[in-house]
Each structure stands twice: as C-alpha cells, then as structure tokens.
Design a protein that fits this description.
This protein has helices at about 45-55, 80-85, 105-110, 120-130, 135-140, 150-160, 180-195, 205-215, 230-235, 240-245; strands at about 5-15, 20-30, 35-40, 60-70, 75, 90, 165-170, 200-205, 215-220, 225-230. The longest helix is centred in the C-terminal third of the chain and has 18 residues, at about 180-195. With about 250 residues, the protein is α/β, with parallel strands linked by helices. The strands form two sheets. A six-stranded mixed beta sheet has the order 6-7-8-3-9-10, sandwiched between helices. The chain has ten helices and ten strands. It is about 35% helix and about 30% strand. The structure holds adenosine-5'-triphosphate. Adenosine-5'-triphosphate (ATP) binds near residues 22, 42, 47, 62 and 172. It comes from Paracoccus pacificus. Keywords: Amino-acid transport, ATP-binding, Nucleotide-binding, Transport.
Length: about 250
C-alpha cells in the first residue's frame, strides 16, 4: 500500500502573464508507489499544476507566486527541469512529443541521456520497455512520425521510462485515443507502477478510466481542489457520478 508522501504541493498559486490567476491555492500529496489522478474539465488547471511541479511554466510566462512544492522533503520549485529529471521526476507532456524523424527505438534511447550507468544497463531497460509495450518492439525501426497516436503515446511513455524515473508526471494520456487504446494505456500504467514501483501523478479528463486505475484522486475546478479521496470512494460519490461519470 502507498504510504509516505514523495511529492507535496502546498497551497500553490500560479499566475500567467503577471495577471491571470489560474491556480488559486492547490494542495496535493502524492504517496510513494501510488497512482494519483488529477481530474477535472477543460481549463481546470491540471496541466498548469503538472508544469508547476516540473518547473516548465517560465516558457509560458507563468510563475508560482505562492505556496511550496517539495519532493522527498526538499523544495524543488526553483530547480532546473533537467535537475528534476536527475532527481527522478519526469514529465510526459500532453500530445506525446516524440521526435518524428527518429525511429521508435532512437526515441527511446534519447530518454536515457541523463544516465551514466552504461550501455548494458540501457540495453536491459530497452528490453524492459519492450516488455511493457510489445507494440513498440514491433515498431522499433519505424519512424515515430509514421506511427499511430497510440503508438506515439506509448513511445513518449517508454522514453520517460528510459530515464529510470522514480516519478512520472503524465499529462492526459487518453487524449485523442480510441476507448480500447485508452484502456490499454492505463493498464500499462498500472503494470509499470506495480512492476517497477514507479509513482504516477496523472492529469486526466476521462474520470471514468482514471478512477478505475488510480489509487487516489483530486478533482480540480477553476484552479481549486474541490474534492479528493481514494479512487473507489470517489467513484461511489453521488456528485462525482453526476458531474464526472455521466450517470446519476
Ligand atoms: P486542458 O485539459 O485543456 O489542458 P487543464 O485542466 O490542463 O485543461 P490548464 O491547461 O492548466 O487546464 O489551463 C488552466 C487555465 O489557464 C485555462 O483557463 C487556460 O486558458 C489558462 N492558461 C493556460 N496556459 C496559459 C498561458 N500560457 N497563458 C495564459 N493563460 C493560460
């Protein structure tokens, strides 16, 4: 069972362009070894929260103006994104972002760039990734730009795994994918979580699937957490059913 908080976001505010207040005091606790889902509709602030954690807001003229973000107890909000990767936190951005002109395997290998443990270990991890994503093994010599949306999502996740992360921040993995594929992607998240002990914080609009695979969920509305709880409890909650699960 997940326990000790690995990542703690405490009452953060995020402002874009000096004036647009988008996160209005968001707090989250991500336990080591868990799958935590960040839920909510379009524009609720999920992506902004992930980018605040991985320090990717500056390029969008956004900034954390209040609150704190701690990883393993240490303040991380002023760190270079690459330093965060070295500490074990990697983000898989919304919309995949594979290098289109590289093959699938070359894409995976780019994920190992921060590692210093040598070719044999990297080779072993490539096999580990192909174990979780058999489809990537079949497509490893294909140019990523010519693979399907689902394969590109897998490629982006596989590349993240090649950095041997402790924590993956996964933004909207279901985006644009057919239901069956969404199911497959989430099953792989669960398998990687259980098999490698990787901690996940994932942002997802598809509440239904996210709450079936995650352990714990936070629901964001207009930049605030309006509800949180164990995934099973949220799935049974009448408000969640009515407003997020489409039944009620
Ligand atoms: P989505 O599923 O659409 O990504 P989200 O919950 O991830 O939704 P965010 O992308 O975090 O939401 O956006 C939250 C709010 O911040 C939205 O109102 C959006 O318009 C605004 N926003 C996002 N990026 C910027 C930016 N660079 N400059 C100004 N406002 C922004």
């Amino acid at each position: 069972q997940p326990s000790e908080p690995l990542l703690e976001v405490n009452n953060i505010e995020v402002i874009y362009n000096h004036v647009i207040l988008v996160l209005k005091g968001v707090s989250l606790s991500v336990p080591r070894g868990g799958i935590t889902a960040l839920l909510g509709g379009n524009g609720a602030g999920k992506t902004t929260t992930l980018k605040a954690i991985s320090n990717l807001l500056a390029s969008e003229r956004g900034a954390v103006t209040k609150g704190s973000i701690r990883y393993r107890g240490q303040r991380v909000q002023d760190l270079d994104p690459a330093e965060l990767v070295r500490r074990g936190v990697i983000q898989v951005m919304e919309g995949r972002h594979c290098f289109e002109h590289l093959t699938v395997e070359e894409n995976l290998l780019t994920g190992a760039y921060t590692r210093t443990d040598g070719a044999a270990a990297i080779r072993r991890d490539l096999d580990m990734v192909y174990g979780y994503f058999p489809r990537l093994a079949e497509r490893r010599k294909s140019q990523a730009g010519y693979t399907s949306g689902g394969e590109q999502q897998m490629c982006a996740m596989g590349r993240a795994l090649m950095s041997r992360p402790e924590t993956i921040l996964l933004d909207e993995p279901s985006m644009g994918l057919a239901p069956q594929l969404v199911e497959q992607i989430f099953a792989i998240v669960r398998a990687v979580n259980e098999g490698e002990g990787v901690t996940f914080l994932l942002a997802e609009q598809n509440t239904n699937v996210a709450l079936r695979f995650a352990h714990y969920g936070y629901i964001l509305e207009s930049g605030r957490v309006v509800m949180d709880g164990p995934a099973d409890a949220l799935r049974e909650n009448p408000d969640v059913k009515e407003f997020y699960l489409g039944v009620g």
